[in-house]
Amino acid sequence: MTKKRKTAGELSNQAKSDTTKYNALEVGHAMADDISVHLYEAVKTYHDMIDENEFCVVMIVAKDPLISNLTRRKFYCWPYLPSPRPNQAVFLYNKCLGRITKRLWVLPSDMVMAELASLLTVHKQYKTMQAWACAFFEGKFWEYIRYESGIDMPSEHEYFLHHREELIKAGCKVPESSRPDPFDFSKIQIKNIVDTQTAAV
To answer: Which domain, by its residues, includes 140?
Structure first.
């Protein structure tokens, strides 16, 4: 007889009731222990879709919209440097070599990024992350990453500008502006308010 697995809600409640003190650095290392497997799973999925010898493998850590203390890791690949954002790690994959060759950047949460960028000195293990955070807030992120990694890969915007004609011929709609359309708040209708901390019966 197989043991019944706990639901996500049950695990969430168990985590909330846990009063153990955890070392943040140890938790980070534990989360990263199996990252390589998932990075290469993403590479396998996107390998033949991306017509470039080198491409980016991206991991983002996102909060679950329904369970407040649950985070999820998402993995995907882009043929260009993705826009930097908090809780993101980006690696460079080389098709000819068949492996990930570089860690391009790892950005922590927005609050940690802001704190790192504001400090004059940090422990040596945070120096690189501080440099990434400073480059992010100074608006020089791409220049810094290319200089540090010795690459000339384009950003998302540069990539689309370079391949504009190909994309149009392929039937893609190229936006006129990089500014998003304003959101129409009249489309929102709230019929029921659900407390996500209370289990539905």
So the answer is: 27-168
What was the pLDDT predicted at 73? 84
Q: Which residues, listed in sequence order, are joined to residue 55 by a DSSP beta bridge?
A: 93
Q: Which of 9-18, 118-127, 134-143 has the lowest mean pLDDT?
A: 9-18
The pLDDT assigned to 176 comes to 55
Structure-token pair, residue 98: 């068949």
* Spatial separation of the C-alpha atoms in residues 89 and 128, rounded to whole Å: 13
| Burial class (CB within 10 angstroms; exposed 0-12, middle 13-18, buried 19+) of 44 | exposed
Distance CA(158)–CA(188), nearest Å, equals: 35
In a domain? residue 148: yes
- How far is 61 from 59, CA to CA, in rounded Å? 7
pLDDT at 16 over 70: no
Which comes out higher in pLDDT, residue 119 or 188? 119
Helix (H) or strand (E) holding 23: none
In a domain, 129, yes or no: yes
**Domains contained in the chain, number:** 1
Q: Is residue 185 part of a domain?
A: no
What does the block give as tokens for 107?
């950005």
* 85 assigned to some structural domain: yes
Residue 179's alpha-carbon distances to 86, 167, 183, 187, 198, in angstroms, are 21, 19, 12, 21, 39
Helix (H, G, I), strand (E, B) or coil at 90: strand
Under 8 Å CB-to-CB from 96, ≥6 apart: which residues? Answer: 53
pTM: 0.68
Q: What is the mean pLDDT of the chain?
A: 77
